[in-house]
Amino acid sequence: MNPRKRQTVIRSIRAKGEQRQPTGPCRIRQLPSALVMEILSRLTPNTLINCRCVCKSWLFVISHPHFNRLLHSRSPIGILIQTFPHPIRWKGRILEFTQIVECAAPDLQLEKMSFRPKVSIPLIGDKEGFITKYGLLNSCNGLLCLSGPKRNDILYVCNPILGEFITTAPLKNGIDYLAFNGLGFSAATNEYKVLKTCQANQAQIYTIGTGVWRDIGQAPFGIVRFPFNAFLHGALHWATQYWSGYEFMHSFNFETEKFQTIPPPSHFAPKRKLKERVTLGVLGGCLLLCAFEDDSSKFDMWVMKDYGVQESWTKFLVIENLSPTRSLTRADYEPIMFLSNGEILMSYGASAVVLL
pTM of this prediction? Predict the structure, then answer.
């Protein structure tokens, strides 16, 4: 093309582009919704909360179910802490989200965000936004599941970014002495479901939006150690200890609505009383098993590289001398985050976070 003609075309395109550009502060609203979703999904929670107030179109994007899953898949790991602001009176609990960001400096960069629900339901204790007498159960795709103070109380599913809650219907009669419950997601039906069981081996499922609990048969019996973050491949995972001392691992698939037994590492021989305190989690898309021996300070970590295959369990880390004194050897250590420099951020019981 002749250089003069090319310059003329470029000027024409620029002129047309300038004519099409809107004037005033609303120019950003002209961005396509897909591009807005792509940009917003890469922001930190603190910034994202403020973006809800920019305009209605942004609020619509942030409120879309697909955005919540997209945000969860891209966001760095964070810690949700339930604190007691009045330790003497043991009154009032606050949920605080801490975003963990690795930086070049030796210390981690922390960005806190207080959880302040905007809806008026019994969950709110006072004007400070306290979440009184309610327990934090688990999370799934960025949504939280909270329980009431009573055994047969309703459950709450909430979106921390939007500050909105959904309450489940009252539990059907005949279920008490709850052993565990948790929130999950079925990718096949695009539905969130809440599982609730009891020590009488009964299990019920609640699909969000239906308003009805359904009986789904028998559940594994035993003392459940239900982890906060063990949702993988559409299923929740947990360790169950029977009164005899035998320990097993189970899962519940929210698509098939079936319970399954997860095979442990081969050295966890069946029909043998275990001495380890076992917890489950997720690490790098694999099922994580943490075993802390009761009579020592040894802490083992395993990952199931091929999901469902017992032979794929691999011990990748052993930590010794965790507790400085024997009185602390039964502490509950659980990994929270593996840093790029090889260090591990772990929780210590319910009162501290340590860096190893």
Answer: 0.74
